[in-house]
Amino acid sequence: MTDTEIKLDLARSERIGFGEAVFCADKSPTQIDHILAQARDAGTAMLITRLAAAKYDQIDAEHRDAMDYDPVSETGFFQAPPEPATAGGVAIVSAGTSDARVAREAARTLEFNGVAATLIFDVGVAGLWRLTERIDEIKSHPIIIAVAGMDAALVSVLGGLVPGLLIAVPTSTGYGAARQGETALAAALVSCAPGVVVCNIDNGYGAASAALRAIAAAKLMTNPN
Predict the structure, then answer these.
(1) Does 3 have pLDDT greater than 60?
(2) Are residues 117 and 39 in the same domain?
(3) CB-based burial label for 54 (10 Å; 0-12, 13-18, 19+)
(4) Helix, strand, coil distribution of the chain in percent, nearest 5
(5) CA dihedral defined by 68, 71, 75, 80, rounded to 10 degrees?
(6) Do 71 and 169 share a structural domain?
(7) Confidence category of residue 225, pLDDT binned at 50, 70, 90
(8) How many CA atoms lie within 13 A of 90 on its CB side?
(9) What is the CA radius of gyration of the chain?
(10) Which structural domain range is residue 188 located in?
(11) Which site among 114, 138, 184, 223 is 20 to 30 Å from 37 CA-CA?
(12) Any bridge partners for residue 46, and if so which?
């Protein structure tokens, strides 16, 4: 392949406040290496998403050495400066342990962009007491990302309890009729709870990006100039 197949958006952060991310699920190790080489030459940090561990092992060692890689979320921080994230008022709440990959993708996306999130795992409605015992903590966050598969019931329950921005991420977790997340997506879209923002199936990156936009909008309202 040649670099003519690749055109990085190096000015995205100047336009919208957060940079380009590289989605690796449908890219070959060779294509990923070409992208990372361009980012390296430009001196640009990149967020890498959906980079499976087996594919990560196949990219150039030089690129692996320049990457903070997390196999659970399948994300990498390429050439990212080691700056600590600051609290951004975001809680990521997952229904079950099976939703951890998507929840951690959201958390890592926020961290890459300098925002630390509170992670609250395994509080789905099958054991409602797990949610109610932490609801005050969840409500204290102005932005909540709810990650849930199967019937995505967590989304509607949270939607009726929390006052902040609620961003739903339906996941592909579940048995047959869950239809790889289509049932959870439909349930989130038709939630009776008003004002729920719904992202695509398993799209932790997209949910975090929505949260980043909300944080930026709040700053603009506070400091319009």
Answers:
(1) no
(2) no
(3) exposed
(4) 45, 20, 35
(5) 0
(6) no
(7) low
(8) 32
(9) 18
(10) 86-219
(11) 114
(12) 78
104 and 36 in one domain?
A: no
Q: What pLDDT, on the 0 to 100 scale, is given for residue 4?
A: 62
The reply to whether 156 and 200 lie within a common domain is yes
Where do the H-state alpha helices sit in 113-201? 128-132, 135-139, 153-159, 182-189
| Residue 32 one-letter amino acid | I
The phi, psi pair for 49, rounded to 5°, reads -125, 155
- At 16-37, the pLDDT tens digits run 877 789 999 999 999 999 999 9
**CA gap 54, 69 in Å, rounded:** 12
pTM for this prediction: 0.92
Which residue spans within 79-208 are E strands per DSSP? 86-94, 115-120, 143-148, 165-170, 197-198
Tell me whether residue 225 is in a domain: no
Structure tokens at 220: 């603009």
Helices (H) and strands (E) in the chain, counts: 10, 9
Give the pLDDT confidence score for residue 50 in this predicted structure. Answer: 97
Tokens of 124: 């789905």
Mean pLDDT for all residues in the chain: 91
pLDDT at residue 70 greater than cutoff 90: yes
